[in-house]
Amino acid sequence: MEKTAVKGFCGVSLNPKSILAMILLTAIICVLSCIVDVVYTKANVRITLLSATIAKVDTVSQLSLNEFEIKAEPEQSGPNSTMNNLIDSSEQSGEWQTVQMRVTAYCPCQKCCGKYSDGVTASGYKIRPGDAFVAADKEYSFGTEMIIAGYKNGEPVKVLDRGGAIRGNRLDVFFYSHEEALKWGVRDLGVKVHPRNEEK
């Protein structure tokens, strides 16, 4: 049986196999086009989600960094801290700092030192006539040098003693006689302190 050819456009003869092949090719092209469109759409969705996730992570990281910076801020010292009373806040080693202090005086007698009137300071130094030194809080290590206006002609003196009432920004300057200690009285002064890093 002879197969009938069908004339197509421009007079081109098309047999049934050619027509079927064209239909299949068209169907395949449509399917591929749909697949590409779906893949492209999913890719765009994934890119959008990824961008949103990155933005969210960046925001969270920034918030965490800000929180860390806030927590990392140093705590302020109390009102009685020496650092709050620094007039010269320089902390470089070898430089003098000026600290506002209340300065009283004492001598080695029993009235001033009570049971500790044995002529030996808390640092173990044996007191001699003419000595000049100070009793200070444990914040200042033994050997710390200080310059106190009106005491020992403004020359540096060392911390060699402690005192029961000497806390914070309180100092006791030493005099060998009780009369000299009474004459000193109570003075509020800017005391120059030479920083030390030794154990107290």
Automatic annotation (TrEMBL):
Pfam family membership, one: 3D
GO cellular component terms, semicolon-separated: outer membrane
Keywords, sorted A to Z: Membrane, Signal, Transmembrane, Transmembrane helix
KW Signal (keyword) present: yes
A Gene Ontology BP annotation from the UniProt entry: peptidoglycan turnover
GO MF entry, a single one: hydrolase activity, hydrolyzing O-glycosyl compounds
Keyword Mitochondrion recorded: no
Domain (3D): residue spans on this chain: 134-186
Protein name: 3D domain-containing protein
Organism per entry: marine sediment metagenome
Positions of transmembrane segments: 19-40
